[in-house]
Specification:
A hairpin with a 5-residue loop joins strand 1 and strand 2. The protein is 35% helix and 16% strand. Helix 13 packs antiparallel against helix 14.
């Protein structure tokens, strides 16, 4: 069984070993003869931005205590854990990516409570399977964390002292069970904290934009890798693409930003198809919705729908061109001062009229577009845009009037991703359309006079996609 971090009756945090006791002679011998000293750690990129964000957050809640946990490990199966990924809000305000840490901002003063690497005066470094250095690697010391993040860092064992006492306290809930149990719940105050933190992330600064651009650039390389291995793709199917893209994500970034969607044939009509266990069949299309998470944890989110044979059939090209026209309309609506919902409305107008021209709608396009009808949605299914950043669906706890009901501002980054999906059992469409799914998605930065496509290095038009695929396979 994996060792666990627990809180005792006093709420102190410590590591609990479930391994059998070892002989004292062995333990004593293991504690001898080790060299360990703090390394000179450079200040982490983005640390200054995180400090400014903490100051802004504290100013919004003067005289209050704000508690933002990083979270801990989650069990994958029995005694193995998932790879740790720190909570988004915690990362945004600290830059810290180590587990079990908790940021406490008390009346403007910020302290990070963290779990450092274990000293050689206990058995933890060689016996603890979750935190011990000989099991999982070397964690930073408190001083190394402080130097890299640019804020005071104390041992997590002292967290309970910081959480005790009177005063208004707000907690970012649902991240750490121990923290949630340590502070009484005030749902109104806690929800307000979550909302404010989400809304602060709506507009990205220059450093964040650079991180997103890097994520998009690595993502483009991952797409190219996948096509370069097309012979293996045809042999092994969807899983080969998933694995190839993951390799690039891990080599140049931190991870994938979300489970890759590799939808060959009719799997493309399942919006979140992540089983990725099907074949890649000649004559069909494959929908690839994939994004690299950079080492800063900012993620890309890009979709292309490729012809398996390298060239679209006439029918596939007609449908692809219709989706591309819808995306072009959505991108054109992505401007400062325009409503966030405008990208969706522009794209859906194109698709509804296209479906009408194909004779599929039961009513004229304008009637189908009426909010009281929306029957066109049978074949479009989802919204066209969402915010993008540290989360692939970023700023999800922002108030509707600040996000989906708001106007776009320079610095916002959002996807534009219309699609058409004809299910393979849909009897209301001609047989030749059944099982076809097409989505095109790019990541747009709103600028002072329009928008910049951060994922523009990947081709979008049918002709350019075909030429690009041919070039990658040489």
């Amino acid at each position: 069984m994996s060792d666990q971090s627990t809180a005792d009756d006093q709420g102190q945090f410590h590591t609990e070993s479930h391994d059998p006791a070892v002989p004292e002679a062995y333990s004593a011998f293991m504690r001898q003869g080790w060299g360990d000293q703090d390394a000179d750690v450079p200040r982490r990129s983005g640390a200054d931005q995180a400090a400014a964000r903490r100051a802004r957050l504290a100013a919004l809640f003067p005289g209050e205590r704000l508690v933002l946990p990083a979270g801990g490990y989650k069990v994958r199966s029995y005694d193995t854990d998932y790879r740790f990924r720190a909570d988004t809000a915690h990362v945004y305000f600290t830059g810290n990516q180590t587990s079990d840490a908790v940021l406490v901002i008390d009346d403007g003063e910020a302290v990070l409570y963290a779990r450092p690497r274990s000293g050689r005066d206990t058995d933890e470094f060689f016996r603890d399977r979750q935190y011990g250095q000989l099991w999982v690697g070397k964690r930073p010391s408190l001083s190394e964390l402080s130097a890299s993040l640019g804020l005071p860092v104390r041992h997590v064992d002292h967290l309970q002292d910081a959480l005790s006492g009177s005063g208004k306290t707000r907690v970012h809930r649902g991240v750490s069970l121990q923290v949630d149990r340590s502070v009484p719940v005030d749902r109104t105050r806690d929800d307000e904290l979550a909302r404010v933190m989400s809304e602060m992330r709506l507009v990205k600064d220059d450093w964040e934009v650079a991180q997103l651009q890097e994520a998009c650039d690595i993502t483009a390389l991952g797409f190219a890798d996948s096509v370069a291995e097309w012979d293996r793709v045809l042999e092994f199917g969807e899983r080969w693409i998933e694995g190839t893209f993951f390799r690039r994500a891990r080599a140049m970034g931190n991870d994938i930003g979300y489970d890759s969607i590799v939808g060959g044939g009719s799997h493309a009509t399942t919006l979140h198809w992540i089983d990725n266990d099907g074949p890649i069949t000649p004559g069909s299309l494959v929908l690839l919705d994939m994004g690299v998470e950079a080492r800063s944890l900012y993620t890309a989110d890009v979709t292309r729908t490729l012809p398996v044979d390298g060239r679209y059939t006439a029918l596939q090209r007609d449908l692809y061109d219709l989706v591309l026209q819808a995306q072009d309309a959505g991108i054109a609506a992505c401007r400062p001062g325009s409503p966030f919902a405008g990208t969706h409305e522009a794209a859906m107008t194109v698709l509804a009229h296209g479906l009408d021209a194909m004779g599929l709608l039961p009513v004229p396009a304008e009637q189908a577009l009426d909010p009281e009808s929306k029957v066109y949605s049978r074949w479009t299914l989802h919204g066209t845009s969402h915010m993008l950043g540290l989360d692939v669906h970023d700023c999800g706890q922002a108030a509707p009037e600040s996000y989906k009901g708001a106007l776009l501002e320079p610095g916002m980054v959002l996807t534009v991703e219309p699609g058409l999906y004809f299910q393979d059992d849909d009897l209301l469409v001609p047989e030749e359309l059944r099982g076809i799914g097409i989505r095109i998605e790019d990541d747009l930065l709103v600028t002072a006079d329009g928008a910049t496509n951060l994922s523009a290095s990947l081709p979008r038009t049918a002709a350019d996609v075909e030429a690009w695929m041919a070039a990658q396979r040489r």
